[in-house]
Amino acid sequence: MAGEKKVKAALLGLGTVGSGVYKLVQREKEEMMSKTGSGLEIVKVMVRDLSKKREGVDGSLLTDQWEDIIKDDEIQIVIEVMGGIEPARTMILEALNSGKNVVTANKDLVAEYGGELLEAAEKNGVDFLFEAAVAGGIPIIRPLKQCLAVNEIDEVIGIVNGTTNYILTKMVEEGMDFDEALAKATELGYAEADPTADIEGLDAGRKMAIMASIAFHSRVVFSDVYTEGITKISSKDIAYAEEFGNVIKLLGVARNTESGIEAAVYPMLLPKNHPLASVRDSFNAVFVHGDAVDDAMFYGRGAGEFPTASAVMGDVIDVARDIQYHCTGRIGCTCYRETPVKKIRDIKNKFYIRLQSNDRLGELAVIASIFGQHKVSITKVLQKGITDGVAELVFGTEAVEEYHMWEALEALKQRETIREISSVIREY
Ligand code: NAP
Ligand code: HSE
Questions:
Q1: pLDDT tens across 229-249, in order?
Q2: Atom of ligand 2 nearest to the CA of 107
């Protein structure tokens, strides 16, 4: 439309997510005016390697120079989808301090420097939005900050890493081994370039830090989140879990308790009737409990070109509206409390323990008494048989502070009759 108002944006990054954003902006050309009250145009696209072929992208928009963007006063929105801490952090700070609104999908950055970036946005009266940084296409940041704002939220549990959920699903349903399932997840584009961040729980830990900060109104950074991955989960544990009516899932668990915030990521045995137990393949889901809303669950695709670009574009459209109505900076930092974050040693969990012990009269009673001495109360015991004089014992416990369990396990390890503690997995 000739003479229509247009909001100008710059895209930093044209990889998986950036390409999706670019395509959606092109597709929405006609609709944007109706949706936001203005047109939207990407006027610069910053990449690292200008010599790469970029199909369907207007080559005249490409640049590898940040100055082309930061010095252009007409650019009102910077969409950061490059990833990593630097140079993204410096560029975003410079953009915010120049009065530009910023949308990002960068969980690494928000989980560590979210406070600093939100503060810069507030100081400059601009938007800093990051819906895509947690659980890709699933709306969760906006629901927590806006739709559920009246609630006192006490628990957020998430399956927030698609790669590990895919691996566990394949191990459970198809008997695939870990390495094969990881190779498939990589082939399908779910895994990070270095999948350590996925399989060791770091990616999920970053997402939990962001969600806990928003849900509990108190800053939680990535280093506050205890993380454990899924590399030690064996097909035997999966089979025992099944026998106990559970599935094993990599869960992010954040709780606001009287003694502080708990934030952790670990594999857990989850009862099959819990709504999160049916979240399969690379899907993500977040389960929230609030005092007014009760239980609410958010489910969908946590990664990929269009699901993630969908969340980025939701933010971009919101910024374009805010620009139209002169109300940018409307929703800033919501961390108005300072609640301490608990150390993992003080978090209470139920446990599943599988160990190998010499077959010896009275050994089970000794093991039970060692648990008892360390305040660990046993809820179930399973022994299937004896192979070459070694019994495999499986225990379930009541919830106990982690440090009591660590001390009990240490005491068990000192016994000559205990050949191996094969698995220690928490139970939801
Ligand atoms: P990607 O495919 O690796 O793309 C990164 C893009 O950024 C590339 O176009 C690259 O340029 C550009 N880039 C990187 N460093 C740069 C630099 N220093 N200067 C200029 N350009 C640079 O990454 P992605 O998967 O799209 O992820 C982007 C962001 O979204 C990350 O923060 C990620 O955590 C987040 N995210 C991704 C997903 C997903 O499903 N992929 C889901 C949720 C959130 P070249 O093309 O020249 O190499
Ligand atoms: N590697 C991530 C995952 C991508 O598997 O969920 C989205 O953050």
A1: 999 999 999 999 999 999 999
A2: 8
